[in-house]
Amino acid sequence: MVKAIVGACWGDEGKGKITDMLAADADIVIRFQGGSNAGHTIINDYGKFSLHQMPSGIFNKNTVNIIGNGVAFNVPYFVKELNYLKENGIHDPKILISDRVQLLMPYHILFDTYEEARLSDKQFGSTKSGIAPFYSDKYAKTGIQICDLFHEDILRERINSACEIKNILLEHLYKKPKLDPEKIFSEVIEYKEIIAPYIVNTAEYLNKALKEGKNILLEGQLGALKDPDHGIFPMTTSSSTLAGFASIGAGIPPYAIEKVYTVAKAYSSAVGGGAFVSEIFGDEANDLRMRGGDAGEFGATTGRPRRMGWFDCVATRYGCMLQGTTDVAFTAIDVLGYLDEIPVCVGYEIDGVVTKEFPVTPLLEKAKPVFKVLPGWKCDIRGIDKYEDLPENARNYVEFIEKEIGYPITIVSNGPKRNEIIYR
Ligand code: GDP
Known about the structure:
By secondary structure, this protein is of the alpha/beta class.
């Protein structure tokens, strides 16, 4: 059985917790896209962890964790996370790395930083993890596959040719010091010994595991609206965030994915720029931000305060549709217990016309939210473990949203801890 866990909207929906929960009975957990640019927060018996690149099955002794070919693989970051886990009592986790994954190179981070500085007030709000330059290189065919580390002549030649182009940009566009390919080669070749024990043909491994009937979990990063094709381009990320891409980023047949758990948070938050129709500001936003998540809504990678908004049925329905959702996991509903009334965005008004369809970016910029206001439940609902025991207004909130988005909410999360979960 293959399950995917993905985000409905802008990311930070609480996928980490749901993944950690579903990973408990997974034989294999795979990261199939993105890199160290986004983060999951997981709270379990070992403590509270902020993971960026490691698959979330890392806490289970019997789970094999795979860095799939679709990931932007940052080796120094991988080592840092391994050490961080070790310091916190997680020893010798089972990890496999695809022999076709490409390396996030030191110059990708440089270019990310220089480009954001060049764009100045038009910048994308990148986490400067090198993700856009990495995927640009992959598609421009100047990227470096991890297997190149074991063929030094090829590696040297590929670094030389990448540097040739990059040095022209550095000299003439960014006015920065040029790269020394030999220096990069010696830095990168150091990775070889560190990662050698983990490398396998993960597509072969997974297809064999499929035949053996193993439980496989595909772990997505960010959310549907950050997808470069279907999202809020250009304020998107650089690799597909959709469950469908898991087939490519991991190397499994598309029809193998039987369950798609789309995680949607009971309110909205977003990082970076771009239109955010149900956004709220000032004290109203701050009240929600400080109560959100397990310790306020601040970026797991950057610590930046997240932008806040009310739940957006238009965006979430669209996100769930693109993900091919079979189940919605509805998180952080406990956070809303302080509100007398809870606005929910049920439509976008664009040029005087109300629509429920998520529009293309130029129209999205013009969209104004149409809110329906639902009554709050005014109490703490953490600790409740049966759906029927939730206050009526909390159930009405869930059921109203389920009807608007048109996908079944089968999991309700009412607290950051692993056991704070209600199945419907
Ligand atoms: P991800 O990128 O989708 O995994 O999102 P994060 O890891 O950033 O999760 C958002 C935050 O919400 C984290 O601090 C989680 O601990 C927290 N969280 C997850 N589920 C719940 C929930 O049901 N209630 C509350 N209050 N916090 C939650």
